[in-house]
Amino acid sequence: MIHHLKGKLVEKNPTDVVIECCGVGYFVNISLHTFSRIGDAEQIQLFTHLQVKEDSHTLFGFSEKSEREIFRLLLSVSGIGSSTARTMLSSLSPAQIRDAIANGNVPTIQSIKGIGAKTAQRVILDLRDKILKVYDIDELSSPANNTNKDEALSALEVLGFARRPAEKVVDKVLSQDPSQSVENIIKLALKNL
Q: Distance (Å, rounded) from C-alpha 46 to C-alpha 64?
């Protein structure tokens, strides 16, 4: 509905700004990433996202379109609300979040305050294909190996093994032969766990 705001910066805080456009002051929630990009400019432009709920209309502002796009993608994930998405964009840059999702990097996503292992996995599962398509990214590691590794780790977790030790063993197995099938990865990992 409101694509962007361009006007005078009246007030600036790490979590929000007030922008005056044609005599109207807009209260806009921002991430620390946007806060650092604004600097001390008197005139600014922020790309916006308007969230409409029963009891509120909340405006979020972003210094660049790519950050707004990542924010909107994060909102599409079940369990991720606007506060969590903003926290994610305050902890990591949009490019870091994009790359972590594209590469299936659960520990990076999980390093954000308030994000647990299951939420991090859900973010990656829900957004990975969209990120790869939208940003036209070639996966940094071989997609088959990455998928096989993820499937093997999920299977080992279901069997009751802790993720970190299992990941170390799976990485060791794949370092010896990266072309292993999921079944072989699991079999070899079970011998070493």
A: 7
Indicate if 70 and 103 belong to the same structural domain: yes
Q: How confident is the model at residue 68 (pLDDT cuts 50, 70, 90)?
A: very high
> The domain that contains 36 carries what CATH number?
2.40.50.140
Rounded to two decimals, what is the model's pTM? 0.68
- Shared domain check, 104 and 48: no
Mean pLDDT of the chain: 87
Cα dist. 25→32, 82, 118, 143 in Å?
21, 22, 40, 48
Collapsing DSSP to helix, strand or coil, 78 comes out as: coil
Residue 140 pLDDT grade (very low, low, confident, very high; cuts 50, 70, 90): very low
Are 78 and 108 in contact, with CB atoms under 8 Å apart? Answer: no
Q: Is 50 in the same domain as 78?
A: no
Residues 10 and 58 in one domain: yes
Alpha helices, H only, the chain: 32-38, 65-75, 82-91, 94-102, 106-110, 117-134, 143-158, 163-176, 182-192
Residue 135 carries which DSSP code? T
The C-alpha atoms of residue 175 and residue 63 are separated, in whole angstroms, by: 41
Q: Is the pLDDT of residue 168 over 70?
A: yes
120 and 69, same domain (yes or no): yes
